[in-house]
Amino acid sequence: MARQRKLTPERKALIQSLLSHYKPEDAQDVQAMLRDLLGDTIQQMLEAEMDDHLGYSKYDYKNKHTDDSRNGYSPKTVTSSAGDIPIDVPRDRKGDFEPQSVKKNQTDISNIEDQVLSMYAKGMTTRDISAHLQSIYGVDASAEMISRMTDRILPIAKEWQNRPLAKKYAVVFMDAVHFNVRQDGRTVKKAVYVAIGTRLDGHREVLGLWVGGNESAKYWVGVLNEIRNRGTEDIFIISVDGLTGFADAISAVYPKAEVQRCIVHQIRYTTKFVSYKDINAFMNDLKVSISS
Length: 292
Prior knowledge:
This protein is an alpha/beta fold. The chain has ten helices and seven strands. The radius of gyration is 29 Å and the shape is elongated.
C-alpha cells in the first residue's frame, strides 16, 4: 500500500489558501495555477536582485547611496516545465544590471535535470554535460552533481524493465542495436537487444532491453524466462536473426512458438549471392514474391 505523503500544517494551510483563491477544477487548471505562481516567484526574485544591485529597495530613497536608479522594465517570455511565462525584467539607468535568476538572453528555465538526462541519453559524459551547462546556461554543476542526477533515472528504468507484460503476444521481434559506450575509460561497441511484441489487439510495445555480453543458449533462456516471469505465458511467432543459441532457448521456454527469421535479414542474406548488375531486377521480383 502506498504511503500517504505527509504535509506540515504550514504547507497544508498554504495549499488550502491557493485552492481557495484559484479554485482549480482539473489538472489543466492546476498547471495554470503553477505557471502563475512560478511567474510571480521569478518576478519577486528579479526585484530582489535589483534591490541588491542598487543597494536600496524600491521607494526607499532614504537609504539610496548611488547615482544609479530603476528604469522601468523589459517584457520577456520564458519557457518553463509549466509552459510559457511572461515576466518583466527590471532595468537600471546605467544598464549594468545582470540578473542571475533569469540571465540575459536566457529564454528556457525548464528543469535542468530534464536537460541533463537528455544529454546523458545522447552519450555525453558527465564532464561534457557540466561544461555544456556552464557554457550555455551559466550553471555551475560538477560532474559529481551530474552523476547524482543521472543516477535518479536508474530506479525508473529498472521499474520499466520489470513491469508486467501481456499474457499472450502474436509476434515478438528480437533484434540488436549497436551503440558506442564508455566502459573503463574507453569507448567500446556493445549490442543492445530489443524485444518488440505485438499483442492480440494489434498494439505494439517494447518488452525490454538487454545489453549483450557472452550470448549463448543459457543467456537467451534467462532473457525469455524474464519475459515469462513478467506474465507472458505464450508467444505465437518469434522473429529473430539466427542469434546463437536463441532457437534452443525458445524451445525450452516457449516450445509452442514458431521461429521465423526476420524478413529484412533474409533479404540482406539473399542479395549476397546476386551480382550487382542484377540486384535491382532481383529486388523488384523479390518484393512481388514477398507481398503476394
